[in-house]
Amino acid sequence: MRLHLSLQEPRTNNMKKIGLTGGIGSGKSTVAAIFKTLGVPVFDADSVAKQIMETDAKVIAAVTTQFGEEAYINGKLSRAYIANIVFNDAYQLALLNAITHPATISAFENWVLQQQASYVIKEAALLFEAGTTAGLDAIIGVTAPNVLRMQRIMHRDNVSREMVIQRMDKQINDEIKMRLCDYVITNDDQQLLIPQVLQLDEMLRSV
Questions:
Q1: Residues 74, 75, 76, 79: is their CA dihedral positive or negative?
Q2: Distance of CA 188 to the CA centre of its chain
Q3: pTM summary value
Q4: What is the C-alpha separation between 61 and 178, in angstroms, rounded?
């Protein structure tokens, strides 16, 4: 595990907000699950954003206006339809993010107020791409070799290599992304994840 930089001075409420990010197939959600088993509150921004797109009336109206009535089927978001649009058009992806991110950020802030812990984690695939790092005390990045990432996604989502490449191209280059992070966890099926997370958890609780 590579560590660099240091945490900012703790806030007056002593609860640190830690970002957790990583490229598609990096194993970010697996790392988040380990933190959860350690009792760390984890906010899954991507899942919350999807929920908001099906429950927030203003968001639903904006998505429908931008992407058409086909965006919803019987009140449920047509993820395949939306994905086909945004993964092929950076401008449309930016528009979707502009619709969903404000509501997701608000949900995170309200969620934080309900937590009681030395630190909480905000898990999001596009922390840097979406410009939603403001207010975070530090960011953990999860990295894995591109070949391994592709194999994981192809197996998990039953999609082609070309489709995985298309998704990866919508994210910041992994090497650049890791340089932007304060802490980096390597998930290459060679280094054990749990010891890396345990070391970080101990550091974050003590700072």
A1: positive
A2: 19
A3: 0.84
A4: 36
End-to-end CA distance of the chain: 18
Tokens of 197: 């997370």
What's the pLDDT tens digit per position in 80-121?
Answer: 899 889 877 888 988 998 999 899 999 999 999 999 999 999
Residue type, 27: G
88: buried, middle or exposed (CB in 10 Å: 19+, 13-18, 0-12)?
exposed
